[in-house]
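Q: Can I borrow your eye for a moment on a structure tokenisation matter? Would you mind producing a protein record, from residues through to fold? Write it directly below this note and I will take it from there.
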Amino acid sequence: MKLTFKTIEHNSAEYRQVVDLRDRVLRQPLGLAFTEAELAAEANQIHMAAYGEGQLVACLAYVIIDDNTLKMRQVAVEPEMQRQGIGQQLVSNAEIYAVDNGYCRIELHARDTAAQFYLDLGYEIIGHPFIEVTIPHFKMVKDWCTVIGH
């Protein structure tokens, strides 16, 4: 499937679709729901979406940590579209966006069930597993700052 990628505005109709996808894929299976405060706190984040045949199929968000670093979070792919390379394409596109916008390091907290996905994309595990939103996670990082001279 040919995908198109775009950044989307907080509180737009597209953003609400992204929140619905994240809720269905990431929150509901854990018995969790987004609060208005959590969603309001995303106003300064960078929201990215992948579309296939005009339909939202995947998304992620970035938190700006500093001039060099973004934290990738809330990566979600429609369940029936998983294991088709969509997540890999989304992350690769998000990495290009990061470099094009002057960032050279991406951090993330990967669920233990997703750690291998990120290892396969060149991310490294930093430290030991920890619990976040009730399940084990790993801090992971991909850093090319020294390679590009930051």
The first strand starts at residue 3 and ends at 8.
